[in-house]
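User: Teach me something about this protein's shape.
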Amino acid sequence: MKLLLAFALISALLPTDAFAIHVPEAYRSGKDICTQAKPAKELGRWIAVPIDYSNSESGLTDLYFWTTKPYDTTKKTLVFVSGGPGDTAHRSHLDLPNWNVVFFDQRGNSCSRPASKSIYLDQRFYSSENTARDINEIRKALAAERLSVYGVSYGTVPAHLYGHFFPENTRAVVLEGVVFQGGHNFMSPLRRLKLLQKFFDKLPRNMQDQVLQLSANSKMPSNWFSNIGMKMLYLDNSFTAFRSFLDNIVWNEDVLATLANSWNDQRPTDVDFGYGHVLMGMLGCRELGMNLSTASLYAVFENRTLVYDLDNALQKHYCEPLGFPKDSVHGLYKADSYPSAAPITYFQGTFDGATVATEAIQHYRTAARGFAQLILVGKGGHLPIIGTLSSGYESGEVAELRQEALSYALQGKPLPSILMQNLEKTTDLGWNGTLKLTSEQKAGGVRSF
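Assistant: First, the predicted structure itself:
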């Protein structure tokens, strides 16, 4: 099943060359798109939030949020923050029995696109701080005194900011697949390169030679190995899946031909109830470093060694068309500039190639100022908790234990040692935790569990 998921990820994310971001002339707002067409399962509504929180005269824009069950005022409430930036939760299956699970479209995306195209393309409309403040407007609309905020991947940025700006309204923050700071180290981390290089070096020599031969083939992008490898690093036990993938394709000419043809130019265009490329560009180019000319997601082989190719297609196809200066570092996000005393739990896979484990460790050490626990999942991929709970590929005890772990985290409570032991027993991953308690909890500093 996980190999099938890997193929699905690759088919969705494979192309590396793209035309510049495309905005259709006939613009439609989120309300135009979603008033009649939103998924039937969603019990949703729009609220009016400030276009610019720093300017009371800027006007209001519509923000869409929803639940999949009637809201129950007797239950605790969590707000789920999607990643990307640009992803949505319309296909999420997250369901926790004792919680109100609230989803929302971040401003600029899907049902939360603004009324006019000019606002939609205005850089000032977008920021992670705006998203954090939008979450607080959702809290007010629900008349909830406190929220737990669960951010995944890029969503860890606004989730952390919520705890920083609204500690009195925060029960707990859960960060999974953690972003610590934007910039070159986020875009092109050395750990990702080392993981892929170590995997390549352990392949049989004849397979290594075939990989290198394919990388030199004019029909295949020279960075195909790292491109696919990065997608594999989204998965738990990623290198088992990657090896199975290579076993099935590197000597199969028909499959290789199909693979080569999949690298077709595409025009990044926002998808209704799906990916928001404008949102991705607006946040990625200002806050994450997508505009850095020397940054690259992918690597090529020099002899038998992987090196980043320094060909940042994201800068050319997103940042430049949206008006962001090349190599500007003004506005780059850095978590420890926003210290948070809210209870924080980190779930981080050590094989994660999108947001590497060193990011989560730095965040835990420098940005968390109150109770915090860091759960490192050995051989875990990008999203070891939500990836199981929302994908439908896992069930039974494996999913139930992850759900239990998430429930403790959402309450700002330490995961019990017995739960960690059971997680260890039911998977072939490694579950290791480090805990910081407040003085009121009689911590005595930091301890492992």
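Now, about its shape. The chain has two domains: 2-20+184-263+272-319, 30-183+340-448. The domain at 30-183+340-448 is CATH 3.40.50.1820 (Rossmann fold). If you'd like, I can walk through any region in more detail.
User: That's plenty for now, thanks!
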